Amino acid sequence: MLDHVGYTVSDIATSRRFYEQALQPLGISVLMEVTEEMTGGHGSHLGFGRDEVPFFWIGSGKAASAGVHVAFAATDEATVAAFHAAALAAGGRDNGAPGLRPDYHPGYFAAFVIDPDGNNLEAVFHRGGAA
User: What pLDDT score does 129 carry?
Assistant: First the structure.
């Protein structure tokens, strides 16, 4: 079981705007901000999460990550669709419209978006509780 995940982004202000909008339908928001001064010069970081627990982090750094895949759990199909629409409105690129992915399992309902740095984000709802 993972506790949290994080990666660097090329422009933290741009990524903050993108992620705040894209993750809002999932109930995920910025819960912590760590300044460069607080890290002793090792970049600034934003912790996104819910219920007072940050579990998804982005940070400034020497080089941006690319090709990372992160899947966020959604509570239903409408939330998957809302994530997809919000992420596209925030400047993301479509990488798979909301829909069933029966090759993963019969109840796998997901949508995929590419963030400003080329990372693949997914929102997924498992029909029938299958995971």
Answer: 67
Burial of 5 (0-12, 13-18, 19+ CB in 10 A): exposed
Contacts of 36 (CB under 8 A, 6+ apart): 42, 43, 44, 60
Beta bridge partners of 73: 124
What CATH architecture does domain 5-129 belong to? Answer: Roll (3.10)
**Cα–Cα distance measured from residue 45 to residue 118, given in angstroms and rounded to the nearest whole number:** 19
| Annotated domain spans of the chain | 5-129
Contact of 34 with 47, CB cutoff 8 Å: yes
Residue 42: the pLDDT is: 85
Residues of the chain scoring pLDDT < 70: 1, 62-65, 129-131
